[in-house]
Specification:
Number of domains of chain A: 1
Number of helices of chain A: 17
Helix content of chain A: over 70%
CATH class of chain A: Mainly Alpha
Largest interface: A-B, 40 and 41 residues
Shape of chain A: globular
CATH topology of chain A: Farnesyl Diphosphate Synthase
Number of strands of chain A: 2
Strand content of chain A: under 5%
Order of helices and strands of chain A: HHHHHEEHHHHHHHHHHHH
Oligomer: homodimer
CATH superfamily of chain A: Farnesyl Diphosphate Synthase
C-alpha cells in the first residue's frame, strides 16, 4: 500500500480531525484566528493524528474520544513549530510565510502560547488523568529538548549520544505518546500501550534523522524551505557529526562551519553541503535510521494482526525510504 | 492586621509553597534551572498562592493538595511574566535583570514554555478534572488578553470597556481562579467557589488598575522598573484613557503619546506623566478601583465568618490603598 492509499482509507476520520482542528483554532479573537488558521492551512502530514487513530484501532475505537487526543497532539506540534520559527528566524515553513515573518515575533510567541492552551483545553475534555500526566511530562521534556538545541548550536564537539538525547526530546517523544495515548484513550492494556509507545519512539527517531538528512540532501521544493537551514542556524545534525568523524572531510568542513557561524545574516552553505555529501556521514545516518525502523517494526510483533498493524508497518517503511 | 502580619501568620504554609516552587523549578537541565530559579529568586508577593490557601480554608484544608494548585498558579503567572518581558523588551523586573536581558529572547521564550509545562505537570497530580478545565480555559483567555494588549498598543481611541476586557483576561481571571480552585481543591460547594471567584475577579481588576496607577505615579524603587514603562511601550491604561477625556489635558497629551510612539529606542515620558498627573485621570481610576474593591468585599458576604474571611477582606483593603 502507498502512503496516499492509507490516507485515502482513513479519509473520513482524518477529515473529522481536520474540521475539529479548524473549529478549535477559530476563536473569538480575529487576529489569533487568522494566525492560527494561517498555520493550519499551510497543511502538514498530520502524522500524529494518524498514529493516534491507528493506535486506537487496537482497543475500542471511538472517534469522538480519539479525536480529542489527535487534535491536542497536532496542536502541541503546531505550537512548537511557531515558537521554533521565532528561534530559527525562519521566513518560510511548508512553502508558506511563517507567522513570525508574516506578522512579527511577538505575535508568533503568543500564537504559540494560544495554540498550546487550546491543546490543553481540548484534552481536558477527556476525563482520563493518565492522559494529562503523560502529556504534561512530555511537554516538559520537549522544552528541555528545545533548550538543548540552543545550547548545542555550532557545537561541533558534541557527541552522537547528545544528538540522540536531543531528538528524543524534540521529536520522538511526541510521536511515541501519540501512539501511547491513542491506545490509552481506546482502553488498551498497558502492555499494548507500551508496545505502541516503543513503536512511535523508534519511528520518531528515524523520522527526525530522515528530516535532518532531507535538510542536507533535499531540494527547496521538497523541504518547503532552502536546504542547509539547519547548519546555517547552527543545528549540528547526525550526518554532520558523522561527516566530522570522516578524516577525508573533517579538516575542510570544520572551518567551513566556523565561517557560517561567523557570517552575519544568511551565510552560504553550498560548500558545507558538498563536503557533507562527499563524506560517509549520509550513508551512516541512513543506516542508523533504518535500524530504528527495524526496532519500530519489532515493537509491533506482539500486537494482534489487525489491518492497523499492517498500516503502521507500512508507515515505518515509508519513513525508512523518506518517501513522504 | 497589616499585610506583613498576615504573611507572618501564613509563614509555615507559604514556606512549604516556596520550597515546592523551588523544587519544581530545579530540573535536570542546568540552564533551565538557572533561568527559572533566577526568576523565582527575584521574589514577588505570591498573591496567587495566598488566595489559594485562604480560599482552601472554607473547605477541608489539605496543604498537600492545595500546594499543587498554588504552585501551578504561581508558575503560570511567572511564565507569563517571562514572555511579557520578551514582548515589552524589558530589562528589569522586580529590580532584577529579566531573563531575556540576562540571557536572550530565545532562552526567555523557552524558559516561559518550560515553566508553563511544569505548572501543568504539577496540577495533573490533582485528580480533579474540573480543575484542569477551569485552568486551561483561563489560559486560553490569558493568551487572548496578551494578544489584545499588542493589538491595542498606542491606540488612544480605544474605549474604557476595551481596557476592562483586556485586564480581565490579562490579570483578573488568574486571581479569580486562584480563589475558585483553592475552594474546589478543598471540596467547597459550588456556591462558595463561585463567591470566591467573584471576590478574586473584583480584587484582580482593582489590583491591575492599582498596578497601572503605580506605573504612572510610583518611584523606580517602588515599581522595580522605571515609571512610565507602560506608556513607553504603548500600553494605554485606564488613567491615561481618563486623562484623554479631560479637556484640560487631552490636546497636549495626544501629541506627546504620538511622539513617544515615533521615537526610536527609549522615549522620555516625563512630560506625558506630568500631564496625566495633572488630569482628573488619576482620581477617576482610583475611584473605579475602590468600587471593584467594594464589590469584592460584598462577594464574601454569604461566606461563613472564619478568620480567612477577615484576611481576604484585609487584603482587599491593602489593594485599595495600594499599600503592598
Amino acid at each position: 500500500m502507498r502512503l496516499l492509499d492509507l490516507y485515502a482509507k482513513m479519509k473520513h476520520d482524518l477529515n473529522v480531525i481536520e474540521s475539529e482542528l479548524e473549529a478549535t483554532m477559530t476563536s473569538d479573537h480575529a487576529l489569533l484566528s487568522e494566525t492560527s488558521l494561517h498555520l493550519l492551512k499551510a497543511g502538514g502530514k498530520r502524522i500524529r493524528p494518524v498514529f493516534v487513530l491507528l493506535a486506537g484501532k487496537f482497543g475500542n475505537y471511538n472517534l469522538d474520544e480519539l479525536k480529542k487526543v489527535a487534535v491536542a497532539l497536532e496542536l502541541i506540534h503546531m505550537a512548537s513549530l511557531v515558537h521554533d520559527d521565532v528561534i530559527d528566524d525562519a521566513d518560510t515553513r511548508r512553502g508558506q510565510l511563517t507567522v513570525k515573518s508574516r506578522w512579527d515575533n511577538r505575535i508568533a510567541m503568543y500564537t504559540g502560547d494560544y495554540i498550546h492552551a487550546k491543546a490543553l483545553l481540548t484534552i481536558t475534555d477527556l476525563q482520563v488523568p493518565q492522559v494529562h500526566q503523560v502529556l504534561s511530562k512530555a511537554m516538559v521534556q520537549m522544552c528541555i529538548g528545545e533548550m538543548e538545541q540552543i545550547r548545542d548550536f555550532f557545537n561541533t564537539r558534541q557527541t552522537v549520544r547528545n544528538y540522540f538525547l536531543r531528538i528524543r526530546r524534540k521529536t520522538a517523544l511526541l510521536i511515541a505518546i501519540s501512539c501511547q495515548l491513542g491506545a490509552i484513550a481506546a482502553g488498551c492494556s498497558n502492555t499494548t500501550a507500551q508496545n505502541l509507545y516503543r513503536f512511535g519512539y523508534n519511528v520518531g527517531m528515524a523520522f527526525q534523522i530522515g528530516d535532518d538528512l532531507l535538510d542536507l540532501c533535499g531540494t527547496e521544493k521538497q523541504i518547503g524551505k532552502p536546504p542547509g537551514s539547519d547548519i546555517r542556524q547552527g543545528n549540528i545534525t547526525l550526518p554532520v557529526l558523522f561527516a566530522l568523524e570522516d578524516p577525508e572531510v573533517a579538516d575542510s568542513l570544520l572551518p567551513e562551519i566556523e565561517r557560517i557561524r561567523n557570517t552575519e545574516g544568511q551565510a552560504g552553505t553550498v560548500r558545507a553541503l558538498e563536503l557533507i555529501k562527499q563524506s560517509s556521514g549520509i550513508a551512516r545516518a541512513e543506516e542508523l535510521a533504518e535500524r530504528y525502523i527495524a526496532k519500530a517494526v519489532r515493537a509491533l510483533e506482539e500486537l494482534p494482526t489487525i489491518s492497523a498493524k499492517k498500516n503502521l508497518t507500512d508507515i515505518a517503511g515509508f519513513i525508512a525510504k523518506r518517501n513522504y
